[in-house]
């Protein structure tokens, strides 16, 4: 990969994903993770401080990018959880069917190239009655913002590690075979509107 991708982008993503507004959203979904937990797109570990270690039996952290994973080292020193890393893509999760209680995915559906395939994998590994916890940015409901998202996306995507601005996370979750249990959508205050419309909540495999 390029110098930008390996040495600059991981720091940019780490900074961008650490905003106070994102922390507020993380705090509303991540503590519900329990049992055998699989995090998809672990990144630099921004969800670690919000996980309740007492409720977690096993924690797999799936993250294909070694440069991003490296940035999690400091955060890992301050939490009791010791993740088992899966250095692979979410399109081919190397776990058994029905083996996970909670799938956690935050700000990652925008980036996974074959997102529908990845969601099918998440549903496959999630046991019946298990739960997906998600927080994702995506297409804005306002036409003017949505038009800007479509214009900007071709420039934004290569700069932001493959991140799409126009995906619709709630539709993706439902198309992936999940039933929404709780969902809220809002513009994050202080974030640029083209990247700040976020949907978060939980869903059950159907
Ligand atoms: C914007 S970052 C979000 C990181 C983290 N989930 C968070 O909330 O801070 C998107 C992450 O998705 C990861 N990613 C990219 N392609 C992926 C794939 N095919 N499967 C799983 N993760 C992927 C990237 O390496 C990156 O760490």
Report on this model:
With 206 residues, this protein is an alpha/beta fold. Helix content is 33%, strand content 26%. A seven-stranded mixed beta sheet has the order 3-2-1-4-5-7-6. Helix 5 links the parallel strand 4 and strand 5. The longest helix is centred in the C-terminal third of the chain and has 17 residues. The radius of gyration is 16 Å and the shape is globular. The N and C termini lie far apart (38 Å). The relative contact order is 0.16. The model has no long low-confidence stretch (mean pLDDT 97). S-adenosylmethionine (SAM) binds next to loops. S-adenosylmethionine binds next to loops.
In short:
This protein has helices spanning 3-16, 20-29, 66-70, 73-77, 115-125, 143-159, 169-175, and strands spanning 35-40, 56-62, 84-86, 100-106, 126-137, 178-187, 197-205.
CATH superfamily: Vaccinia Virus protein VP39
Helix fraction by DSSP (H/I, runs of at least 4): 25-40%
Distance between the termini: 38 Å
- Quickly give the structural class: alpha/beta
CATH architecture level-2 label: 3-Layer(aba) Sandwich
The major sheet is characterized as:
7 strands, mixed
Q: How many structural domains are formed by the residues? A: 1
Question: What Rg, in angstroms, do the CA atoms define?
Answer: 16 Å
H/E series: HHEEHHEEHEHHEE
Main sheet: strand order: 3-2-1-4-5-7-6
How much beta, percentage-wise? Answer: 25-35%
pLDDT averaged over residues = 97
In DSSP terms (H or I, runs of 4 or more residues), the helix count works out at: 7
């Amino acid at each position: 990969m390029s110098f930008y991708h390996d040495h600059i982008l991981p720091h940019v993503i780490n900074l961008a994903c650490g905003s106070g507004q994102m922390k507020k959203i993380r705090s509303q979904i991540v503590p519900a993770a329990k049992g055998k937990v699989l995090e998809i797109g672990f990144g630099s570990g921004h969800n670690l401080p919000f996980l309740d270690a007492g409720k977690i039996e096993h924690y797999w952290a799936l993250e294909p990018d070694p440069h991003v994973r490296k940035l999690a080292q400091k955060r890992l020193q301050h939490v009791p959880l010791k993740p088992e890393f899966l250095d692979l893509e979410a399109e081919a999760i190397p776990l058994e069917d029905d083996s996970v209680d909670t799938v956690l995915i935050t700000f990652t559906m925008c980036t996974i190239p074959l997102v529908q395939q990845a969601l099918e994998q998440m549903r496959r590994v999630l046991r019946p009655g298990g739960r997906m916890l998600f927080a994702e940015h995506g297409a804005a409901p306002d036409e003017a913002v949505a038009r800007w998202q479509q214009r900007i996306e071709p420039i934004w995507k290569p700069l932001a590690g493959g991140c799409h601005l126009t995906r619709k996370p709630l539709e993706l979750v439902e198309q992936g075979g999940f039933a929404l249990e709780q969902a809220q959508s809002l513009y994050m205050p202080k974030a640029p509107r083209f990247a700040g419309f976020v949907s978060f909540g939980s869903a059950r495999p159907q």
